[in-house]
Structure formats: structure tokens, C-alpha cells
Design goal:
single chain; about 160 residues; alpha+beta; Aminopeptidase; two-stranded antiparallel sheet; 4 helices; 9 strands; about 35% strand
Length: about 160
């Protein structure tokens, strides 16, 4: 079983290390801008003392943007528990909208967010060209060899 805890000074280094490994972090490119994930609040899932997943978000313009979500153990409910934690935090803050960007190649994430109740808000054609100017290490192909080209915006209105 896992536990969900806020990202704190005690566990931040684990999350930052994993973002570096998984995302060539700490920066993620979203809609033509870079986010420094080291400054974003979030939640982490642990199995014992081992990191099992994390979610980071950014509050701006009275909205909550999920900037990074990664479950290191698939199909155990970790991703869902992390999203639920952000939804609760967003509600507690009195905010009415959660949104995120994923890329066209990430079909697993697209299915996950739609099953979760997020709706497709926008598609940004060839947005990854601009993202590569900000973060040149973004590959040309992504999951399953799909060309990494577009950003999909999903939202949940609370």
C-alpha cells in the first residue's frame, strides 16, 4: 500500500531527482513557457520510504495547473490518488478550474485524464516546435514512436 504526503523539504530532493531522470528536468515546457518544477507545490506517493509517484502544480490566475504527474508503479491507483489530492487542494483554495497540458504521443495520459473527468479544452498544433526552442532536449518522437508535435489541453471545472 502507498501513502500520499505533501512535497516538503524532507522529500523534495527525491521528487527533483526523479524529475531530472524522467523529464530531463527541472524545467518543463508548457504553452510556450518554461516551468521550474522545483518551486511548485505538490504531493508524493510513497511505498515505505520509496518514492512511488508525484504530482506538482502551479496556482496562477485563480486556476490550478498540473505541471507534472508521474506514477512509478502503474495500475495501483497512485496516479488517481495524486490527482484527487490536487483536486481537494484546489477546492480548499476556492479555485474553480484545474488544467494541464499533455502531448499528442502520450495516449495513456490522454485516456487517463478523460476517464478521470477532464475534458479536452484545446489542441495546439505544432506547439512542440516552440517548446524545443525553450528546451532543446525534447525529442522528435515520443511514446510508441509517435512524432512529438502537439500539445493537448485538458481541464476540469469544479
Amino acid at each position: 500500500m502507498y501513502s500520499i504526503k505533501p512535497v516538503t523539504e524532507k522529500n523534495r530532493a527525491l521528487v527533483d531527482k526523479q524529475i531530472l531522470e524522467s523529464w530531463a528536468g527541472p524545467y518543463v515546457a508548457v504553452k510556450g513557457r518554461l516551468h521550474d518544477t522545483r518551486s511548485h507545490p505538490g504531493f508524493a506517493a510513497f511505498i515505505g520510504r520509496k518514492l512511488a509517484g508525484y504530482i506538482l502544480y502551479n496556482i496562477a490566475d485563480n486556476e490550478c495547473e498540473i505541471t507534472v504527474l508521474e506514477s512509478l508503479r502503474e495500475k495501483q491507483g497512485i496516479g488517481s490518488a495524486l490527482v484527487h489530492a490536487v483536486i481537494q487542494e484546489t477546492k480548499n483554495s476556492g479555485l474553480k478550474r484545474i488544467w494541464l497540458i499533455t502531448t499528442n504521443d502520450n495516449t495513456r495520459a490522454i485516456r487517463f485524464y478523460q476517464r478521470f473527468g477532464f475534458t479536452l479544452k484545446g489542441v495546439y498544433i505544432n506547439a512542440m516546435e516552440e517548446a524545443r526552442k525553450l528546451k532543446p532536449g525534447i525529442p522528435l518522437t515520443g511514446c510508441d514512436g509517435i512524432p512529438l508535435a502537439h500539445e493537448f489541453e485538458f481541464e476540469m471545472v469544479l
